[in-house]
């Protein structure tokens, strides 16, 4: 065994607390780094990841079955590396019961024998793949059991398409959006499909729509003219996905950056503290004949061994923790399939943190290398001149209890160590502040949603559906029925209609409203302008305004039931009624050719009324009504609040460990002083108070400095996320800071500092005076 | 000298593992006495001092100082007892490097609840008495060994202790500084301060103490009255 290893091993064994702290900090920092990098990585390319996992189609091509045969399509592969199909494809006019039935509309259905294959490997996340005619598996982003059970999809167990009764046997997800549903090839053949679907993956450049178009030309060359009906490059779905995932990117990016920063500071503090406190030991090694290089090697080994052990465990912990977090985060977006931590992420944790430790140790170890043996020995115990003296003198003259004033002066004795500890506390408080602001804003937004969405949504079942009970009441009677039920406070009614707009390529959805709609939160959440006051006035949702480049004051010419009507946008509101989100509110008018399911009612219940009891009584009063609970907190709120809580806790724990390490080092440095103080009558409680005060003071400073950073991050990140979602948030949801919350944030810094300091301070309070002074 | 007992040890035994550092020590010190404890290294001198100072607890036996049973006190009561009734000086002074000489001394009074002003006033009196008034604003690192020990003595006397304990008070000093400290201890004893000095230094014992207790293997080997040189 080499002398270096023997000395390093002995040092590791002797300094158990320090070794433990280094290992624990490395473990938590690695876990934080792995989780943060995994989240950053996932947010940077969630679509690409799932697209690669599913071997998504670069192009989804639809051919005319009458013009090109399956054999011809199977042979046409020029430039394609992988091909799936040809599959029969048809559009199925569906009918189904329940709230989702009205929204299903025509479905593009493909006949596929299995969900696997070279291209578009589908994630069958619930149920199974169809195995017999009469069965269908529908396309939807994966959802967890609880959410699925709550949502309308759980009620969709059967539907009728093209005259065939279809049993929904499962749910699958195609990131390529290759179809709305899949049946067996036999079922498809029975429908005599007019189209054929082929899915392609190409080699070479597929980065742009044009590039994909060129590759597709290579495949279709030689096929009969007009055979290709349509082809969708993957960029279409990727751009849609970017809009959704982009909401998460600013949140997770902010936490990722904070996590890595905290890890760097804590590791640097712990390791350099360990080396500095070992200067005397370094002197002894040198006096024994260790060369400067060997001394450095001993110290690097001493810190790298526990750091590596911690990094290995931290990587495992981070990988295990990040997996479910990523899956929860991206499952709702459809990217949850096999979401895992990438190998480069755990490699970064496994190698990066020990490398960081090595680097942090190298600087102080190099300083020790340059010292002579005598200097190194004295550096460990010699009085430190000129530091903190003025501060101690001032504090000594105050009316504070002496244990407190001594504690307040302690941080000035080691300014470098204090600066690093305060930096970690500052980042801890920044994280807590940011997470709190984020949660408060999301809760405020969620309340806004809840207030505007009402407690219960009600829609009459559509006419003419087999097996579905329809209401006998008209819209006025339904409104009256709802108003008469116990516990009802407000009822709003609307009739939705998609209306062409003169001069614009796509129509706009207009909700013609009456009743209490305005009073149910929509008027209260006006961002600009005022609520509509006449038939020629409309209020637009922020999403519509942002999407179409409109502004309050603009006029629109609506072509409503053959009549051109000019309306003026008099207000911009945060959101529209449940639906696509980019809608106009207009005052009520009696529309022609209205299906009962075009009417939508939302009900706000009185304070304390039971939502489920109301829904049961409404169903009993009219079984032709479909009702759903709108009181659920939004998915985004749950996911972002969950992630921010986990990361804030993790980073606060790491910051507290940084404090623990600092106090442990301070106690080690000041054992003699502590022994002396106890010998002249300082009680254990006073020792505890002194050491805890020294860190609580840093907690206050870290809190005061960290709050502006956390607030700035909040101000920066929320609007970025809102921009990504193409929504405008009212300013008041960003104004979540009040004096009480800010005081709590400062307290969070103090709490982190106290929790970190408590353990070593308690151990210092129990220090045996006889032993400490005897060791001198 | 009165007959009032300041320290009484009854059959005190202290074990560290299987080794007995003190093995049935009984000892009495009366008010105004100056007692020197001597003996070879490892005989139990420091352990004895630690027992009397309440810095360590006996395995068995009773330690009574100023009428209070130290072996029955918890840590907090021991700290309060030390604060009010005991003064200690150490071989290596044990001054706080971050505090000036004056603040090191004032600290002992501030721990008892005195205001900074009152504590500093009392400390200045002691600085005058001990002849170090000109060094009050100097930090320990800039003081000579003798000056540091005088500051340590001033700190020990700050709360007018019933008993002053000195552990090798001249051990880290040159002979001149050592002489000054000895003179100081003699002066203190002559004005009624009870002293217990643990030392290897026969000269210190014979100059400062009125009684010598010799320890060997954790037992009191001999006790004798001394005529101060």
TrEMBL record, chain A:
This is Putative ABC transport system permease protein. It is found in: Cell membrane. The lineage of its organism: Bacteria, Bacillati, Actinomycetota, Actinomycetes, Micromonosporales. It comes from Actinoplanes xinjiangensis. The keyword Acyltransferase does not apply. It is a multi-pass membrane protein. GO terms for molecular function: transmembrane transporter activity. Belongs to the ABC-4 integral membrane protein family. Keywords: Cell membrane, Membrane, Transmembrane, Transmembrane helix. Residues 418-620 form the MacB-like periplasmic core domain.
UniProtKB/TrEMBL annotation, chain B:
One of its GO terms (molecular function) is ATP hydrolysis activity. The keyword S-adenosyl-L-methionine does not apply. The keyword Transmembrane helix does not apply. Residues 7-229 form the ABC transporter domain. One of its GO terms (cellular component) is membrane protein complex. InterPro entries: AAA+_ATPase, ABC_transporter-like_ATP-bd, ABC_transporter-like_CS, ABC_transpr_LolD-like, MacB-like_ATP-bd, P-loop_NTPase. It holds the Pfam family ABC_tran. Keywords: ATP-binding, Nucleotide-binding, Transport. Gene3D superfamilies: P-loop containing nucleotide triphosphate hydrolases. This is Putative ABC transport system ATP-binding protein. It comes from Actinoplanes xinjiangensis.
